[in-house]
Write a structure and sequence with these properties.
The complex is a heterodimer of chains A (243) and B (469).
Chain A lengths: L1 E10 L2 E11 L4 E5 L6 H9 L4 E9 L2 E2 L5 H7 L1 E4 L6 E5 H12 L6 H14 L10 E2 L5 H15 L3 E5 L7 H18 L2 E6 L12 E6 L2 E6 L2 H9 L1 H6 L1
Parallel strand pairs in A: 3-10, 3-11, 6-9, 9-10
Antiparallel strand pairs in A: 1-2, 1-4, 4-5, 7-8, 11-12
Helix pairs in contact in A: 5-6
Chain B lengths: L2 H15 L6 H4 L7 H10 L4 H16 L36 H10 L3 H7 L9 H14 L2 E4 H7 L1 H7 L10 H9 L4 E5 L9 E2 L14 E6 L4 E7 L10 E2 L2 E6 L4 E8 L6 E10 L4 E8 L4 E4 L2 E4 L5 E11 L3 E10 L5 E11 L3 E10 L7 E10 L5 E10 L5 E10 L2 H8 L5 H17 L4 H19 L1
Parallel strand pairs in B: 2-4, 3-5, 4-7, 5-8, 6-9, 7-9, 8-10, 9-11, 9-12, 10-13, 11-14, 12-14, 13-15, 14-16, 15-17, 16-18, 17-19
Antiparallel strand pairs in B: 1-2
The chains are: A alpha/beta (243), B alpha/beta (469).
Chain lengths: 243, 469
């Protein structure tokens, strides 16, 4: 499980997150909400190990101190972050890339035929067409396609902790449902823990939520059950922040 | 090479490969260039007198011409210390044990067959490829295509040879062309008859046999009207050579409506100056494409050019330069538009790593009489660390009317956020770098024959592993 205690994060000497406590158990789904600039993405990037952020406090996953590990090692522990800003890597064929991701995250090799079958199953879940595999990684993709490709990578890696940083922005309702299907698949098949970062409630109606955290000015100011989403949606962030 | 320089070179080699050439192995050989040496070369090849005369006059030209006053420094080259002529019996067989470990390891990782390894590392003077070669030869014979060594062509196809030889790159063109004209040995001769299309690439790799990878190779290619073919030379695997200077000359004649592609992959060991003059003459509606990959050598200076001499001619250059460990890759292209309605394209990509320097040096020339010409130049440089560098020297001389000339240049560094993105998906740093570099050069690599592309990507993987340390 993911355990965060008294976490403090600085970016270029500026304090972005402070006194963060958060615990996400296997199989649970937590939601992190908050306005733009509240520090949501900073938390996600810090958990993944972005070297730009200076992190202090306690950050562990499965009992391992993440602060001692580089991003690759964190990934090897089973942590996956779907990026808010997805990067384009021209010239890298998606098929070759996905094959490499599988190889890196699974000790047991698959024959090329079995890998193709495995990949096809995941692509079907997300309604991806086969032609897609010959394209370059995220290059010239629409915002929605990029997000779906992030989720496809998640399905290939099969992580234990899934962090979705604004996966729902730029997605139409069909794509949101496909993403939710994939996340629910991971929970069901692999008992993965999920941390959803969003400012909308749209995707949340397709997921079973355990806890909701409201982040404001770098601190978690309220934690509650799934009903908190409806309250925030109804009354707006501002009221909670003041209250 | 001066002895001092050789010593430095050996030290550098020792450091990089844990291996150096014993100096005494060179001392016993005949050094220096003289009329006697040239006559010896010519008579051993039983050449007609015109070629001997040509060689001797080229020698005189060579002695007159000054070293290039531009570009990277060539002052370490000492012409008196170069061995210009090696008889077959002189070729020393190196033992496999003497081959640098790093080169052996690279062969292993690339999966190069033993027969090729022996040849590439100089253990064997000849590459035995009769099986692969004879089936290709039969196909070519049937089509009337001539593909043979320059020596053979001079004897058997003397009229054709003499009609074209040195008409595009005269000895006086530059000092190294003059040197090559005087001392040339080995290289390929290709003639494609009119309207003949050669499907399989012609590979010099299998043709080098007798002359090995000569230090003064000479290549002459004629693609007759309406024909098409693809010529490939060199290889991605590292090639170890004891010669310190390689000065090749390549002449390609693309007759009207013909289409020719010339691909070179060069991965010489790090003790070599690779100074090549490559030129193509393109007639009406002809298409010439140069594809160039410079991966090895101590220094490469190579600017393949297209002389677009008749209407509708097109010239293209796609190049990758990979500079590492204080290598200098000074490469580029020249497009000379000498007739109206001609067009050209240059795409040059370079990667500099671990102290390597890559320069793009190019020329687009549109003559006054050449109206309505188009040219596009795109140079992209990728720099992997602070020790490495890149420069661009684009020259444009545009006199023709209605010319459309575009030039784009970019220099980029490996973006940390891309590294983080890939590493967060479980890739280690070397793997992430490999993907980024391979992705960067992919537009050129996809133009290479498949086996070269695969090997090149594996080579980059090895380099990245090495550079991350």
């Amino acid at each position: 499980m993911l355990k965060i205690k008294n976490l403090q994060v600085k970016l270029k000497k500026k304090l972005v997150l402070d006194k963060i406590d958060l615990a996400v158990k296997n199989g649970e789904t937590h939601v992190l909400m908050g306005q733009n600039g509240a520090g949501k993405s900073t938390l996600a990037q810090s958990i993944m190990g972005n070297p730009n952020y200076k992190v202090q406090g306690e950050l562990t996953f499965a009992g391992q101190d993440l602060l001692q590990l580089d991003p690759q090692q964190r990934s090897a522990l089973g942590i996956f972050l779907s990026f808010q800003q997805v990067l384009e890597i021209p010239g890298v064929k998606i098929y070759d890339y996905l094959k490499l991701l599988y190889k890196k995250s699974h000790p047991q090799k698959l024959t090329p035929l079995k890998f193709k079958a495995f990949l096809k199953e995941k692509m079907t879940l997300l309604e991806f067409k086969e032609e897609f595999l010959t394209r370059s990684l995220n290059h010239g993709f629409s915002g929605g396609e990029k997000k779906k490709l992030e989720i496809l990578q998640m399905l290939i890696i099969e992580p234990k902790l899934i962090i979705l940083d604004e996966i729902d922005s730029g997605l139409d309702i069909d794509a949101i449902q496909a993403v939710a299907r994939a996340v629910n698949f991971m929970k069901q098949e692999h008992n993965s823990a999920v941390l959803v970062i969003t400012h909308y409630s749209r995707i949340l109606s397709f997921l079973k939520i355990d806890q909701v955290h409201l982040l404001s000015h770098g601190q978690i100011i309220k934690t509650g059950g799934s009903d908190l989403v409806a309250q925030i949606e109804e009354q707006g962030f501002a009221k909670f922040i003041k209250g | 090479m001066k002895k001092v320089a050789l010593k430095q070179l050996n030290d550098a080699y020792q450091e990089r490969f844990g291996f150096a050439m014993p100096e005494n192995s060179l001392l016993s050989l005949d050094f220096g260039l003289s009329a006697e040496v040239i006559e010896q070369i010519s008579s051993s090849k039983k050449e007609p007198s015109w070629m001997k005369e040509y060689r001797l006059s080229s020698l005189a030209t060579f002695l007159k011409i000054k070293m290039p006053s531009w570009g990277p420094s060539l002052e370490e080259i000492d012409f008196a210390q170069i061995r210009y002529f090696i008889k077959d019996t002189d070729i020393e067989k190196r033992s496999w044990d003497e081959v640098p470990d790093e080169i052996k390891q690279t062969f292993d990782r690339l999966g190069v067959p033993q027969a090729e390894r022996d040849f590439l590392s100089g253990v064997k003077a000849q590459y035995n490829s009769e099986v692969a070669y004879s089936s290709l030869q039969a196909e070519l014979d049937e089509q009337g295509v001539i593909f043979c060594s320059m020596e053979e062509a001079l004897q058997k196809h003397s009229e054709l040879f003499r009609k074209y030889f040195a008409t595009l790159v005269p000895a006086a063109d530059n000092k190294f062309a003059a040197l090559n004209s005087a001392a040339w040995s080995g290289g390929s001769f290709v003639y494609i008859p009119p309207n003949t299309h050669v499907k399989r690439p012609l590979q010099s790799y299998f043709r080098i046999n007798a002359a090995r990878m000569g230090q003064f190779e000479r290549t002459l290619i004629i693609a007759d009207e309406g024909s098409s073919a693809h010529y490939v030379e060199g290889c991605t695997a590292p090639v170890y050579s004891e010669y310190s200077l390689h000065a090749a000359v390549v002449e390609v004649f693309v007759l009207s409506k013909a289409r020719f592609r010339y691909t070179t992959i060069q991965n010489w060991s790090g003790n070599i100056y690779n100074l090549v003059t490559k030129r193509a003459k393109v007639m009406a509606d002809g298409v010439m494409e140069w594809v160039d990959g410079n991966l090895g050598a101590k220094m490469s200076m190579e600017y393949p050019s297209c002389y677009l001499v008749e209407e509708g001619a097109y010239g293209e250059m796609l190049s990758i330069a990979y500079a590492k460990n204080s290598q200098i890759q000074d490469t580029g292209a020249k497009m000379l538009h000498l007739a109206k309605n001609t067009s050209s394209k240059i795409i040059a990509k370079s990667v500099s790593v671990a102290g390597g320097a890559s320069n793009y040096r190019g020329l687009v020339y549109i003559a006054k009489a050449a109206s309505d010409c188009k040219s596009k130049v795109e140079c992209d440089a990728l720099i992997l660390d602070d020790q490495s560098s890149t420069s661009t020297f684009p020259d444009m001389k545009i006199s023709g009317e209605n010319a459309i000339v575009e030039h784009e240049a970019s220099v980029s560094e490996i973006e940390e956020d891309k590294l983080f993105y890939l590493m967060s998906r479980g890739l280690d740093k070397a793997e992430a770098l490999t993907l980024l570099v391979a992705g960067f050069i992919e537009p050129i690599v996809k133009e290479l024959p498949l086996e070269y592309a695969v090997e090149l990507n594996r080579l980059i993987e090895l380099e990245m592993e090495g550079s991350v340390g």
